[in-house]
Structures are given as structure tokens and as C-alpha cells.
Design brief:
Blueprint: H1 3-16, E1 21-24, E2 31-34, E3 37-40, H2 49-57, H3 62-71, E4 73-80, E5 84-93, E6 96-103, H4 118-123, E7 129-134, H5 141-155, E8 159-164, E9 177-182, H6 190-197, E10 204-207, H7 213-224, E11 228-233, H8 238-247, H9 254-264, E12 265-275, E13 282-290, H10 293-301, H11 307-312, H12 322-331, H13 337-343, H14 347-373
Parallel strand pairs: 7-11, 7-12, 8-9, 8-10, 10-11
Antiparallel strand pairs: 1-2, 1-6, 2-3, 4-5, 5-6, 12-13
């Protein structure tokens, strides 16, 4: 079997298994992640060092090979006709080539399909500000952002510029113009791209990842000066995201950055993927922090620790903690209690939320039963 065919066969198999990621490493059979769990391709052989190197190098150009061998890491996008796009990461382990490939859907999902909260559908049409999507690697951040931008592209007349490493979802020009720039191909770095992007007359800017001080500072400035900026950061909740951004800056600049963030933050959405209990598959759970005046004041005053309680008590403004979302999914029979407890931020808090909800439902059920037993007006004894 030719190597090119083997790569194709692996990608086809990934698609057939409904897998999210393909893993190739020396001393193991190829495997994929299906609904969060690793599954080996039992009918494939255990791979040698020569196998993994040949498989990897069949996917890349000569200049990419040289870069990989020099830097020992390589990120790039790969497209296979009929299967869609893939995000690839090559790396060395124990002096041998290994790689992980993330499958990207052929079609960008709608915001409704991935259950994005209603407040997001409003905030993506703000004229300016910062929209942050946070979460661990593999939590669906890229998919959420693609769904948001696709909706904007469908219904508004804007100029959207994306800075990505690599480009994952391909956006067509619809009602808006979408220019997608791949770091390492169309530009040298996020920081360099952000220096130039404001000269490109954008309405909306997507920063694939805020990795360094220069990129973060430029994103905040763009959000302050009349642009809507979407960005991602690897944190597990909204308050931690604020601390992470501020801590990047030198101590003497942090008070100014707090003020800037307080002025420009529109929403921070933190997400994680959960195994469904109602049917095969996974769904995203969301924590929502909205830039209401109370939150802006807490950021400005450095009282980040008080934000979670503010989020819990301002549900009408579209806010919720991750634990509140997990509680709601549990009572909607979308996830098990075990899944909820394994992903909560505060186990005691989640147990209290569940107990309060059970008491509320029990009380409502009792009132309904009492109402059913009450005589109607015409049969009330005199």
C-alpha cells in the first residue's frame, strides 16, 4: 500500500469512526479520539520510526519539512477533497516523528446547533469591544468562533480579518468580506499582524490566540479604538482569563490595563466539552461573564475574586457560572451527575445548586398537586 494511500485511509477511517483527532506515534497502532476517548485502529500494524516519518513527510512540502526539522514542531492546515480540512501538529518524541491531526467539520455549524447562549447572539453585533472565548485545548473554542463569524458574515456588511495559526475553518465572502491570514504563511507572527491590521480597514478582527504581551496589548487597543475583537486564551474560567491578561504586563502597567479591560470587555465565554447522556456525542458547557457596569467596576478595582458571585446573581443579564450550566444540563438530562461533578469548578457549590433546584422542583410539584385537589369555584361547599 502506498504511503499517500495510507494517509488517506487513516483520514477516511477517522471520518468513519466519527473521531475528532487522529494520533500517530512510534510503537503504537494509529488511534483516534471518539467522544473524548482514545480508540486504536486494531486492523493497522504497530508503527515504526520509519513509518511515522514517511507518513508525516508525505503530507508536507519541502520548506515545511526543513522548518519542522529545525524547530522540532510544526503546525499547519491540511485539506483532503471529500473529507474536509484538518489541523495538524507534528512533533518529535524519543527522537522519532509523531503527530496529531484534528478533524474540522466540512460545514460551519450554526450557533443554535452548538447551543451557544443567547447573550452571545447579541454581543457579536456590538460595534466595538473585546469578545474572549476561553477554555482548554480541544474544548471547541475554534468551532464557537467560526459559528459566530459565519453568522456575522451572513447578515451584516462588514470587513472581517482573521489571524490564525493555522487557518482551520474556511470562510467564504458572503454579505461581508472575510480575509483570513495564516501565521507563518501570510504573516510572520500574531504580534506583527496586529501591528498592521488596523491599516487594513477592518470592522471585526479575530486573533486566533493571544500568546504574548505585544499581541494582547494590540488586541486591547484595537477593541478600545472602534473595532470588535474576537480572541481566544487558554484558561478555564472568566475571572482567571482577566488575571492571565493583566499578569502578562509589567507591574507598573497593570493598573492601566485593568482600566482598559474594564472599558472594552464585552463578554468572556469559557467552555468545555462534555459527554452527552441522552445520545452519543458531546456538547459544550458555557460560563458567561458579561461586561455589565458591576463587572467593569470589579475589574477596574482589582476585585476579580468577587466576579463569580456577581455572575451567579445576574442571570437576567445573560451571565452564568460553569457550575450553574452543569446543573441545568443535568436537570435537562443532557449529562450524568458523574460528568457534572467531574467538570465542575467547585464541587460543594454544585451540590448546593443541585439541592436547591431539587427543592424548588419538589415545592412546585407539591403546589401543583394541591391545586389539582382544590374544588372548583362552583363546587366550593357553602
Amino acid at each position: 500500500m502506498a504511503i499517500k494511500e495510507t494517509i488517506l485511509e487513516l483520514l477516511v477511517r477517522l471520518h468513519e469512526e466519527n473521531g475528532s483527532d487522529l494520533h500517530v506515534s512510534v510503537g503504537a497502532k494509529p488511534s483516534c479520539r471518539v467522544f473524548g476517548e482514545i480508540k486504536q485502529f486494531e486492523d493497522f500494524p504497530v508503527l515504526t520510526s520509519e513509518d511515522t516519518r514517511t507518513l508525516a513527510y508525505s503530507m508536507i512540502r519541502e520548506e515545511q519539512r526543513k522548518k519542522f526539522e529545525n524547530e522540532k514542531e510544526l503546525d499547519f492546515g491540511y485539506e483532503q477533497e471529500g473529507l474536509g480540512r484538518f489541523r495538524c501538529n507534528f512533533f518529535f518524541q524519543r527522537e522519532s516523528v509523531a503527530f496529531a491531526i484534528r478533524a474540522l467539520p466540512l460545514r460551519i455549524p450554526t450557533m443554535e446547533e452548538i447551543l451557544l447562549p443567547e447573550i452571545i447572539k447579541k454581543k457579536i453585533f456590538e460595534p466595538r469591544g473585546l469578545v474572549l472565548v476561553t477554555g482548554p485545548t480541544g474544548s471547541g473554542k475554534t468551532t464557537s468562533l467560526a459559528a459566530m463569524l459565519n453568522h456575522i458574515n451572513d447578515v451584516t456588511h462588514k470587513h472581517i480579518v482573521t489571524l490564525e495559526d493555522p487557518i482551520e475553518f474556511s470562510h467564504k465572502h458572503k454579505s461581508s468580506i472575510v480575509n483570513q491570514r495564516e501565521i507563518g504563511v501570510d504573516s510572520f507572527s500574531f504580534a506583527e499582524s496586529m501591528k498592521r491590521v488596523l491599516r487594513q480597514d477592518p470592522d471585526i478582527i479575530l486573533v486566533g490566540e493571544m500568546r504574548d504581551l505585544e499581541t494582547i496589548a494590540a488586541a486591547i487597543t484595537a477593541a478600545e479604538t472602534g473595532h470588535l475583537v474576537f480572541a481566544t486564551i487558554h484558561t478555564i474560567n472568566a475571572p482567571m482569563s482577566i488575571d492571565r491578561i493583566i499578569d502578562v504586563f509589567p507591574a507598573e502597567q497593570q493598573e492601566m490595563v485593568r482600566a482598559q479591560l474594564a472599558n472594552c470587555i464585552q463578554v468572556i465565554m469559557s467552555q468545555t466539552l462534555l459527554k452527552r447522556s441522552d445520545r452519543p456525542g458531546r456538547l459544550a458547557a458555557f460560563e458567561m461573564m458579561v461586561g455589565i457596569p458591576a463587572v467593569r467596576n470589579l475589574i477596574r478595582e482589582g476585585k476579580i475574586y468577587q466576579i463569580p458571585s456577581t455572575m451567579m446573581t445576574h442571570k437576567k443579564e445573560g451571565m452564568q457560572t460553569m457550575d450553574q450550566c452543569l446543573r441545568d444540563y443535568y436537570f435537562a438530562n443532557l449529562i450524568t451527575l458523574e460528568t457534572a461533578m467531574s467538570r465542575c469548578h467547585n464541587a460543594k457549590e454544585l451540590r448546593n445548586l443541585i439541592a436547591a433546584k431539587e427543592a424548588e422542583l419538589s415545592e412546585a410539584s407539591g403546589e401543583e398537586a394541591d391545586s389539582d385537589n382544590e374544588p372548583t369555584a362552583e363546587f366550593i361547599p357553602q
